[in-house]
Amino acid sequence: xxxxxxxxxxxxxxxxxxxxxxxxxxxxxxxxxxxxxxxxxxxxxxxxxxxxxxxxxxxxxxxxxxxxxxxxxxxxxxxxxxxxxxxxxxxxxxxxxxxxxxxxxxxxxxxxxxxxxxxxxxxxxxxxxxxxxxxxxxxxxxxxxxxxxxxxxxxxxxxxxxxxxxxxxxxxxxxxxxxxxxxxxxxxxxxxxxxxxxxxxxxxxxxxxxxxxxxxxxxxxxxxxxxxxxxxxxxxxxxxxxxxxxxxxxxxxxxxxxxxxxxxxxxxxxxxxxxxxxxxxxxxxxxxxxxxxxxxxxxxxxxxxxxxxxxxxxxxxxxxxxxxxxxxxxxxxxxxxxxxxxxxxxxxxxxxxxxxxxxxxxxxxxxxxxxxxxxxxxxxxxxxxxxxxxxxxxxxxxxxxxxxxxxxxxxxxxxxxxxxxxxxxxxxxxxxxxxxxxxxxxxxxxxxxxxxxxxxxxxxxxxxxxxxxxxxxxxxxxxxxxxxxxxxxxxxxxxxxxxxxxxxxxxxxxxxxxxxxxxxxxxxxxxxxxxxxxxxxxxxxxxxxxxxxxxxxxxxxxxxxxxxxxxxxxxxxxxxxxxxxxxxxxxxxxxxxxxxxxxxxxxxxxxxxxxxxxxxxxxxxxxxxxxxxxxxxxxxxxxxxxxxxxxxxxxxxxxxxxxxxxxxxxxxxxxxxxxxxxxxxxxxxxxxxxxxxxxxxxxxxxxxxxxxxxxxxxxxxxxxxxxxxxxxxxxxxx
Length: 734
Ligand SMILES: Cc1cc2nc3c(=O)[nH]c(=O)nc-3n(C[C@H](O)[C@H](O)[C@H](O)COP(=O)(O)OP(=O)(O)OC[C@H]3O[C@@H](n4cnc5c(N)ncnc54)[C@H](O)[C@@H]3O)c2cc1C
Known about the structure:
Elements: E1 2-7, H1 11-22, E2 28-34, E3 38-40, H2 45-50, H3 55-58, E4 59-61, H4 62-68, E5 72-75, E6 78-82, E7 87-90, E8 96-97, E9 100-103, E10 108-109, H5 117-120, E11 122-123, H6 127-143, E12 149-154, H7 158-174, E13 181-186, H8 199-211, E14 215-217, E15 222-226, E16 229-232, E17 237-239, E18 241-244, E19 248-249, E20 267-269, E21 281-283, E22 288-290, H9 299-304, H10 306-318, E23 333-336, E24 342-346, E25 349-353, H11 354-372, H12 403-411, E26 421-423, E27 433-434, E28 441-450, H13 456-474, E29 477-488, H14 492-513, E30 516-525, E31 529-538, E32 554-557, H15 563-571, H16 577-587, H17 592-600, E33 605-608, H18 613-622, E34 628-632, H19 642-647, H20 655-658, E35 665-666, H21 669-672, H22 675-678, E36 689-693, H23 698-707, E37 714-720, E38 729-732
Parallel strand pairs: 1-2, 1-9, 2-5, 9-21, 11-18, 12-13, 12-18, 13-14, 20-22, 29-30, 34-38, 35-38
Antiparallel strand pairs: 3-4, 6-7, 7-8, 10-19, 15-16, 16-17, 23-24, 24-25, 26-27, 28-31, 29-31, 32-36, 32-37, 33-36, 34-37
Helix pairs in contact: 1-4, 1-10, 12-14, 13-14, 15-16
């Protein structure tokens, strides 16, 4: 098994991932590390700024694309690279190791030496940050349309000039008069877009901008940026918000890596898109500098490099000769002029028309469609005839993961030094021994499930939160855990990496709660999986039982529902990345503080919503007392996307069994047809707490829950006296 790690979800990686998904290699494991779930498509970005396109039309969903390609998706920002040990540092997780590395991380406008630029200017990249700042400007203009807006764009290359057209369009749409916009374009060169050797295009763009009232300042060198504007060497001083679109600069963390770079710090690559100094590193897009073919930093090259990059990844792993990529010398540049017209620039030729905009629009939409409509996946095929046949694997104790792998994975783990561990991992033995404090009882729970997410570090956090939740709902104080980890068959270094990431996810949660990891067991399996046995302590009188509901109490739910349907949709590759981001954020949230708050407000019964869904777990609460409950369907908190995936028919494989709870449900047909109804049966992973509480305490309790981050907390129903021999769930709208 070879590990190919991709850093950055730029244009080339997006294309190559799509191609990989259609034609993967079984013996190569792909991982995409990206600091964003959605990456912008540069060709449509100016049109998005103008308001011609929406967010989803102009951004590629990298989580979905990575899953389509069978790749792990780590949403992290890389901050260091060690080429000697072949590891990447990102986020707060253990180092990610690789055999081959591919970089497509783009560039950012250079703000290095100019005082105040880093502090006050809004750089055009990273794009998400720029778009947040841009949205603020737009909101200001919408809220105060009669107020003057002063904007200064620094950099009159293709990016800055196109941005000027589109910013002008967007803001003049918002303001009551175009005269309220004061837009400046400051450029160090003597002509706009001077790099493209096409004087007609420079003159045309200048003329069009001047016609729209944009003030162009050529041959100006910015010397200082202030909160309220900037100063140039000539003495020119301008007031306004400063947007920075100057020449590209590379990521600083590459400097220390010893990879060969050009004079500006961009990674040198040869025609095969590999680093001559480190041939196991590929680089494409803005971050790459082709040794024999220097080209401007433009999305068009990043796009073109996607296919040869994919081909050379494959050829590297199948042992074939790599192919050369020779970028074209001349390329067609299409610059939108903010009025649904475009200027075409090709070598010395130039042309402007409305038709060109429509043509560009068609090309851009076609490009984006390929990521929205991902093709059906083919079953994986063997890469080469020489690939070894699948091995027979031992069962019983022979299925244990090797001792060295376990020792290496455990060696760097940061664990808690919890009191009461008599024999733990620091002096391992055949079993762990813990001291149960005097006058306290031992509370135990166990849970296990196969991986639902392509990131072992996140899986570790989610499973740990899920398992600990049972202790919180009993009112117990967690003390220690034992881990059961299943690692897919494979090479030792791959298994070690997986185990390290997964256990680091577990211990991240444990450290935050001062809980000890005291032992465990690892075995080889077909699929990654994780489970925990959790120990907690409790005073006898403090035991919280889920069945102690009282008539008249209100029901509170602390987290939104929908993980079951969303991950069922993910398995069919139709869940949007942002929906899964929302589900992950909910699943890694601890239930500990929620339990404390519910207890403080006198909740008499509490449970967590997991596999049996809301209906199943609520019925478990009602059964001991025989009471019933009314549930307000409209109030049910839902994860983003859950209603969409339910409507599309995606439900968990456990949902049909959960529907057996329907025999206890009273609901009109119209309510049963409401998509939220199906959410009653949706199994949750690391779901929220459901508690019964006196109605007069609801307002204060919900305020406290929301204050500490349980934003979706809400009253969802009330406990009622049963009118029948068995508890009923009476569904109403609100
Ligand atoms: C305002 C503006 C307008 C432009 N308009 C056009 C245009 O119309 N046409 C055109 O061809 N070019 C345009 N360009 C240039 C174009 O944006 C770039 O050339 C192009 O985006 C480069 O693509 P890429 O694949 O190299 O990287 P990018 O598209 O920048 O993608 C890099 C990805 O890597 C991620 N990343 C970065 N650092 C890290 C890290 N440390 N860890 C993890 N992930 C990371 C980023 O979030 C991003 O998703 C424009 C540039 C600007 C500034």
